[in-house]
Amino acid sequence: MSQQWNSNMAPYRQERSSCLPIILVLLILLAAIGGGVYFLANQSFDLAKAPLRTVQGTAIGIREPTEGQQATITGSVLYRSTQLAYDRNGDERNEVLVQVTSKSIYSMALLDGADGKALWQTELGSESYDLVALEAYIAVVKERDLRLFNAKDGTLAWQTRLSDRIQLYPPMLFISGDLIVVQTYDNILTAFEVATGTQRWQKTLADRYARALTKFGDELCGTERDAESGLEFIICFALQTGEQRQAIQLNQDWTERIEWMADPQNNTGILRLRSDSDPAQLAAIGLDQQQRWSVELADDFADSFRSSDRSLASSADMLAFGAGEQVAIITPEHQVVTYSLSDYALHPIGFDGEVLYLAAVKQRGTNTVSMVAINAKTAELLWRLDDLGTASDWSGNNPIQGVIVPGEGIIFGWLDQEIDDLARVQLLKRADGTVGWSFQQEMFIGQLPTLTRSGNALLIQTGDGLRMANLRTGEGLWTLTR
Fold it and tell me: Which residues does the UniProt record annotate as the domain Pyrrolo-quinoline quinone repeat (predicted)?
C-alpha cells in the first residue's frame, strides 16, 4: 500500500555522514604546506642575504665566515661590470673592481687578485653607475655627476657636477700627475686636482660636440677642421695647463680623405691613411711631424681606421689591418703581406711572434666564427677551427677577442651552439690548434664569457660570476658566484 502525504507527518530526512572530518583534514594539509613554503622562503631569503666566500675555488653562501674562510662581498655581481684595477698590494697581480647589487642598493668592491677576498666594499646608492679604474683612483660616474674614490680603501675623495654628461664611450677621463682631466659631451675639458677636487683649468674645444681624444704622454690630442679652408689638424693640449702646444696638419686641401689613429707601437706618433689616392698611402708620422715610414694599401683598408669599425692588431714590430675578406700585415721591413679568405670577414686578434691569430666570421648562412692562425710573414695558413660560436654573440660594442699566451697559443671563449647556456673557454695551441686546457660552465642565462689577462692569470667573467685561473694550465685559483 502506497504512503500518501499527511501534513501531520514529520519532515523527510535522508541519513548522511558528516563532512566535517574531511574539511578538518584539508585545513590541516593546507596549513602544513603553507608552513613549509614559508620556511623555504625564509631559508632562501637568509641565504640570499648571506655574503659570498671563496673556498678552494668554489663560492658558496654562508651566514658567518669561519676561520680560514673569509667572506668576500655581499650582493650579486653585475655582469660585465668587472675590470682590473691597480696592483694595490704590490704582488704583481691586478686587483679586481666589481659592482654589486643587494636589496636594490648598488655598491662597488675591490677584490684581491690573488685570492678573491674583499679588500673593501663601498655603498654607492639606489642606481647602477659607470665605474672607471684610474691608477690609484676610481671614478664613479652618473651622467653629469662625478665622484672620485681612493682605490686603496674605497673612501670618497670628492664629488662634483659638470656642465654636461661625461664622455664614457670610450671613457674620456685621464690622470696626469696631480690632475684628472675630464671631457664632457659639450666638448669641454675640465681639470681637477685629484686630492681636493679643486678646478685647475677648463678649455672649450672648437667642435660643438665631443669626439674621442688620444693621450700622447703629457698631451691630449684631437682632430679639428678649419671651417674656411677645410684643412684638418691634430690639436694637442698640455694636460697640466690646458694650453695648446702644437697642431699637426693632416691634409693639403679639403678634397683629401684622411683617417688617423695613435700609433699602437709607440706613444710618440700617429698612423695616417690617405684613402683618396690610388693606392691608399699609410704612413707613420711622429709628433714632430717627421715621416718614419710609408706603405701602399688597398683603399678598402680605410675602414680599419674608423673608430666604429676598427679592426687591427699590433706587436712590437708588426701591424695587421682587417678589411672584409682581407688582412694586410705590415712586416718589420715595412713590406705588405696580404691574406684573404673567401666568404669570411677577417678580424685580427693578436700576434704571438710570427703567428697572427684571426677571427673569421662566415658571411653566408649562419654567421659562425672560426679561429685561424697564419704565418704573419708569409700569410701561410697554419691551422683553422670552425664553428666556435656565432657572430651575434659578439653584437654591439664587443669585438671578437682572445687572450694571447706567448709561446703557448690563444685562449678563446664562446657560447656552445648545441647546448643552451653553456660557455666554453679553451687554450688553443700555437702549433696546431689542439686544446691545451678547457673550462666550461653551464649558466642560468647563457652570456658570452669575457676574458682578461692579469699577469700570469686569466679572469673569466660569465653571467654566473667570476673565475680567476692560471693562464697556462687553466687551474682555478678562486671563484666568485653571483
Answer: 110-205
The pairing of strands 52-55 and 319-323 is: unpaired
CA-closest candidate to residue 449, choices 477, 413, 422, 479: 413
Sign of the four-CA dihedral 291, 292, 295, 299 = negative
Distance CA 203, CA 182 (A): 10
Domain C-terminal end among 130, 161, 192: 161
For 25, the enclosing helix (H) or strand (E) is helix 20-49
Place of cell 642560468: 444
Integer-rounded Cα radius of gyration of the chain: 31
Domain presence at residue 65: yes
Rounded Cα distance, 56 and 356, in Å = 36
Buried-state track 352-370, b at ≥16 Cβ within 10 A, e below 16: beebbbbbbbbeeeebbbb
Q: Report the alpha-carbon distance of residue 58 to residue 107 in Å, rounded.
A: 23
CATH of the domain at 51: 2.40.10.480
Cβ pair 203, 237 in contact under 8 A = yes
Helix (H, G, I), strand (E, B) or coil at 65: coil
Please tell me the total count of domains within the chain: 2
Q: Is 435 helix (H, G, I), strand (E, B) or coil?
A: strand
Beta bridge partners of 153: none
pTM score of the predicted model = 0.80
463 part of a folded domain: yes
CA distance 300 to 319: 16
Q: How far apart are CA 41 and CA 39, in angstroms?
A: 5
- Residue 69 domain boundaries: 45-161
What cell does 99 get? 659592482
| 386 occurs within a structural domain | no
Taken as a whole, the chain contains a residue count of 482
Instruction: Give per-residue pLDDT as tens, 402-415.
Output: 999 999 999 999 99
Q: Which of 341, 346, 306, 303 is nearest to 324 (CA)?
A: 346
**Sign, Cα dihedral of 22, 27, 28, 29:** positive
CA 252 to chain centre: 39
> Domain boundary residue among 140, 161, 182?
161
C-alpha cell, 272: 695616417
Residue 66 φ then ψ, to 5°: -100, 170
Give pLDDT tens digits for 4-49.
Answer: 434 444 444 444 445 555 665 566 666 666 655 455 444 444 433 3
Dist CA 433 CA 5 (whole Å): 101
Examine residue 461 and state whether it is found in any structural domain, yes or no. Answer: yes
